[in-house]
Each structure stands twice: as C-alpha cells, then as structure tokens.
Amino acid sequence: MNDMKSERSNDNGAITEDVVRYVAKLSRLSFSDEDVAKYKKQIGEILGYITQLNEVDTADTQPTSHVLPSMKNVFREDLVKTSLSPDKALSNAPDKQGDFFRVPRVI
Fold first, then answer.
1. Contact of 75 with 46, CB cutoff 8 Å
2. Any idea what the CATH number is for the domain that residue 32 is in?
3. How many domains does the chain have?
4. pTM to 2 decimals?
5. Least buried of 22, 28, 89, 107, by fewest C-beta within 10 Å?
6. How many angstroms separate the CA atoms of 15 and 19, rounded?
C-alpha cells in the first residue's frame, strides 16, 4: 500500500492524475483528459478541506446528534385511521390478481 501511495501522489501528498485514473478504473468509469483534470482539482480541494478540519481542536467538544442542542425528535401521537380499501389501493395497478398486486416472479 505504501508503494502505491508513493507512486500515485506528489511529495506534498496532493492527488495526481494517475490516482484519479486508478480510482476511475477501479470504479469501471472512463474519463476524458478534461474530466481527469477536473476531478483531480476537485479531489484536491476536498482533501484540503479535510486537512483544515483535522487542525480544529475538538478535545472539549461533546458528541451530538444534532447541530443545535435545542433540537429534539418530535413524534406525533399514533392514531388509528381507516386505510384504503383493496379496490381503491389497486385502482392504478398495472396488473392485479384478486386483492393483490401481480408482479413478475423473482428468484
């Protein structure tokens, strides 16, 4: 893995066009030279933002599930309501059999 990293990145750790082509090949994507240059720039910017985030001191930060501490999950009361009749539920079905949707068999 270290050999691949040294072959595929600059001395400053920036993404090279070889890395973009390698990831595209793994993803079975084909990019033009213009696409490779565009994605190289975009991936470099993303990694720059990550580097910036890694510099932030988060030692005293409590984990949260929401950005705002005042936010809470709001649940409505569960009420029993009448549901659709089978005829109404199946009224737009392309194919039905009795009270059921008919779909191709999947094995």
1. no
2. 1.10.20
3. 1
4. 0.47
5. 107
6. 6
